[in-house]
From TrEMBL:
Alphabetic keyword roster: Cell inner membrane, Cell membrane, Hydrolase, Magnesium, Membrane, Metal-binding
Matches recorded under PANTHER family: 3'(2'),5'-BISPHOSPHATE NUCLEOTIDASE 1 (PTHR43028)
Protein name: 3'(2'),5'-bisphosphate nucleotidase CysQ
Amino-acid positions noted as binding Mg(2+) 2 in the UniProt annotation, renumbered to this chain: 202, 205, 325
Organism phylogeny: Bacteria, Pseudomonadati, Pseudomonadota, Alphaproteobacteria, Hyphomicrobiales
Source species: Labrys okinawensis
Amino acid sequence: MADARAEQGGQIKRIELKTSGHRSTQNKSGEKGKSGENQISKPVFQIDSAARDVKARGTGLSCYALFATLGRDCEGDAHSAARPNILAVGCQSGLNRPLLSEALLTQTAQTSPSPLSSPDAIAQAFAEIAREAGAAIMQVYAKGCDARIKDDRSPVTEADEVAEAIILRRLAHVMPDVPVVAEECAAKGVIPDVGRRFILVDPLDGTKEFLNRNGEFTVNIALIEDGKPVAGCVFAPAVNALYAGGDTAWRVRDGIEERISTRAYPAEGLTALCSRSHPDAKSEAFLAEYAIADRREAGSSLKFCRVAEGVADVYPRFGPTMEWDVAAGHAVLSAAGGQVLMPDGEDFRYGKADAGFRNVAFVAWGQDAPQK
Ligand SMILES: Nc1ncnc2c1ncn2[C@@H]1O[C@H](COP(=O)(O)O)[C@@H](OP(=O)(O)O)[C@H]1O
Ligand SMILES: [Mg+2]
């Protein structure tokens, strides 16, 4: 017998994992086991009926929570099953650890309406969550950590994972009925079906900046409705700067909260921003067609915030990004009076599940796109 806890919607349920059989796997070394066979026999656990009222709803949250709980004892990946209200969790065990081969979490829970009624209230809720995640990131920052390279060749650290777990747990309390697409879950293949309303999370944008210890990394949470970001928060914990946007945009820096807005384009030329760690020639070529007075580099979604607070005017990005990198900064910038467009001037939209939430090129502007 083993046990675990699954959490969603503020409820934590103890789940009993009963052995439903044994699975034989090939001994990696090829050595013969005690049985004399060239195999290791591992128990297979199934979640019993006590788990049936755990809310799953195909959001990936319960799956993640369950995986996170077991993750201390099990190593492996979690993935959502084909059926939308059933999640499967696969953990590859160590020799003395349980193998959870399949957890069937059936949807029975009623969804409760979110008490967060306005975009500003949602952005404020995201801000509180981002601060909590940021505090956890700073603990890892202080002690230092190593990076692992993901399948997309980008780095991930303990800080990304700890921050994402906090954000998912808190979102499950405050917006339990909204699916969440989060960077590290997505990297493990845990991606919920999204409808017209969903949340995008990048727990640590600018992981390279985090590893380079230059402070230009952020926590990002955004709500998407009908393809557009309607509320979002960007928090840069190392410099204690928080940006949020819903109906209005605001910044909290060194404890001082103030409204922010974009500036009119200066007559002497635009201030342009580019990625510090991911420069690309197409973005530079785009800028070459405009009167640029100053060009600066910055890491992470802070570039959107610089435009939103009126210290820069344009941020073109033709190199690859993901929706979770951009949505929160986009929400802040829109609320501050700016916009994010595709280079041809069309709206830049979210929810591109078929493309794996990968973005096309975009340009963030403080005002309407100027004449070339
Ligand atoms: N080849 C690539 N494919 C997808 N996304 C990429 C990428 N190279 C960089 N990025 C994205 O750019 C983000 C960093 O942006 P910037 O260069 O503006 O600091 C990264 O966020 P993470 O640090 O969260 O992985 C990553 O998602
Ligand atoms: Mg990112």
